[in-house]
Design brief:
- The chain has helices at 2-22, 29-42, 46-59, 64-77.
- The protein is mainly alpha-helical.
- The longest helix has 21 residues, at 2-22.
């Protein structure tokens, strides 16, 4: 159980760090943060979160789609 909590904490820190890293490059940070956190709460695990985020890409319009791509790139790089 402790390992799961530690892994969950690390993933949340990764989420926050990716948002922090993406912030200077995105136009709609507040919208991005809201969407990412909503999807994170909805997701059952990190893989599910990435799938949900990927599903949002085709629905998003530019320039927000680019914001999503930037966040995704930062998240996957961590």
């Amino acid at each position: 159980m402790v390992l799961l909590v530690q892994e969950e904490g690390r993933a949340v820190n990764r989420l926050e760090e990716a948002l922090f890293e993406a912030r200077p490059y995105v136009e709609y940070y507040d919208r991005l943060e809201e969407l990412v956190k909503r999807l994170w709460e909805k997701a059952t695990d990190e893989e599910h979160f990435l799938r949900l985020l990927s599903e949002e890409l085709p629905r998003a319009e530019e320039p927000f789609r680019t914001d999503l791509r930037i966040f995704l790139q930062k998240f996957e790089a961590l």
